[in-house]
Amino acid sequence: MFVLSSEDSGFSVFVTGDQNLEFQQNISNRRLGVVVLCATSNALEDLLPLVPAGLAAIATIRPGQLVRVEA
User: Fold this and answer.
1) Residue 52 belongs to some domain of the structure
2) Is residue 33 part of a domain?
3) How confident is the model at residue 12 (pLDDT cuts 50, 70, 90)?
4) Structurally, how many domains does the chain consist of?
């Protein structure tokens, strides 16, 4: 399990491929936004098509918000 606790690191967005993170962690009270890349695997060829939408999500996400990026 991954625990979001490094909020003082200077980062404002956490990008992950862990599609279960939203069910494992309560991020609504965090100072981070979370972008979840929802691909069939974590292989580069599966993730690359999600990059444009992922970058758009990073540009608009707010602290405590979780955005799922799907194909």
Assistant:
1) yes
2) yes
3) confident
4) 1
Instruction: Identify the pLDDT of residue 11.
Output: 78
For residues 24-59, one letter each, b for 16 or more C-beta atoms within 10 angstroms of the residue's C-beta and e for the rest, the string is ebebeebebbbbbbebeeeeeeebeebeebbeebee
Domain span holding position 60: 11-70
- Dump pLDDT digits (tens) for 27-40: 888 889 999 999 99
| Domain annotation covers residue 66 | yes
In terms of phi and psi (left: phi > 0; alpha: psi -120 to 50; beta: otherwise), the region of 39 is beta
CB 32 within 8 A of CB 67: no
Domain-located, residue 57: yes
